[in-house]
Amino acid sequence: MTDRRRQVGRVLPAVLALVVGTGLLAGCSSDPEGPTTSPPAPGKLRVLAGSELADLQPVLDRAARDTGVKVEFTFTGTIEGAEALARGDADKAYDAVWFSSNRYPQALPDAARRLGNQTKIMSSPVVLGLAKSKAGSLGWAGKPVTWTDIAKAAEAKRFSYGMTDPSASNSGFSALVGVASALAGTGAAVNADQVKTVTPELKKFFAAQSMSAGSSGWLSDAYQRRAAGTDPGQKIDGLVNYESVLLSLNASGKLPEPLTLIYPTDGVVTADYPLTLLSNASDHARNDHQRLGDFLKAPDVQREIMALTHRRPGQPGVALAAEFGTQPMVELPFPATQEAFDALLSAYFDQIRKPSRTVYVLDVSGSMNDDDRIGSLRTALVGLTGASDDLVGRYRRFHGREEVTFIPFNGAPQAPRSFTVPETDPKAELERIKSTVTGLEASGGTAIYDSLERAYQVIASQPAEDRFTSIVLMTDGANTSGTGYDDFQRAQAGRSPQLRGVPVFPVLFGEGDQTEMEGLAAQTGGKVFDARKAGLQQVFREIRGYQ
Fold first, then answer.
1. Fewer CB within 10 Å, N- or C-terminus of the chain?
2. Residue 10: exposed, middle, or buried by beta-carbon count in 10 A (0-12, 13-18, 19+)?
3. Reported pTM
């Protein structure tokens, strides 16, 4: 590892801790209308951005010193950011946006008209990275490979991979678009009418997807943990992700074997990271945007960005580092309409990808009556039935073929209530789910671990099928009844490998025990979600990216 990378490795954790501590990093689904923005001022650029840009902070610190322009980030997801633009909310709180790509907001007329001057700073294609031994056994190392070749091997389950949820992260969205465009074989962007035609081929490719995530960073970390054997989840052979993420994994030195990057010869979709001024920005924001953009485009800064983030320089004339190789890349066409995006995303969730199986373990103890917490829980779950028709709600709902089980609990787990959402005409089943969650009532004590154990029993009793299986645990307090955390740990150690690898996604709410919830997530390969500030509706939506 070079001295420069050692320095970066020391700087980034501190930067991320600072950003988290100030409330600016709330995950890929942070609320762009939240209280983290400050009033406008000369020398400060308030930027709504993709969370992966946290790794640029050392460069932006230097920019603040050299140009006097300080960047104030608020992080959000692709669709959340586009929706904030379209509604006009971004205009009220930000001077600029900085997403990995502007393609999605440009497809929304109300969002597109709010985008002003754009400065492309860097780029990173979305490609397939496979463990070196797996790429070798497939005969793909150093050989030309197409997306069709990859889809055939995926259908035969010759390898497995993880990918982010395309409604939550641009890397997953770009992968879905790129594979669809390549497999369609028309040479043009996929339109809404062609989605049905290409769906059978897409099913082949996504048959090998074994892990989903709401962000590229979490996906990368989970892959590293599984490769090292420190995560109970099933090991996978690779990732579909940004080239920069895959190269960063290789540079970390923490993988048992490096990833071989596969650049399909029929094309890729590239994130170009345009720093984009909002059309109604003030004069001082325009000046700050210009100064920052000029600084970031300077050759020495471009080389620093390349070394720090493993992204390609956005300016011609800056030589590529050796890690990027010399293979030519074809850029695949990107759909230009919201109708095409809607058709592709709807088909992905309802027909193409493997369906999910989720057990919701829900605290309905007496404390849930405080401040109408039970009402917030009902509203959040009703929103997952499709009751929220905003852009985010449209995709973060219960999908066709999905199995959903609710286990409400107080002093003991209540009877599980299970539902399967039909692929077509799901309205009646969704209404039954809505009726169930609106009938939740709060009373009694809190038996967290007895109820969690019941969830594992439910999963063990269900047919063995190829699904994304997970448990969501929501509690607003400490365990007061039945078995405890130590009992869970002993039970977890004795489970079958398949059950031990089912991730638990604890939701912190009210006075929930943060230490125990973090322990649960770590032992099961899950992730903690904090609803104490963001709210249950936002958090339940965010969890959808991991199911």
1. N
2. exposed
3. 0.89
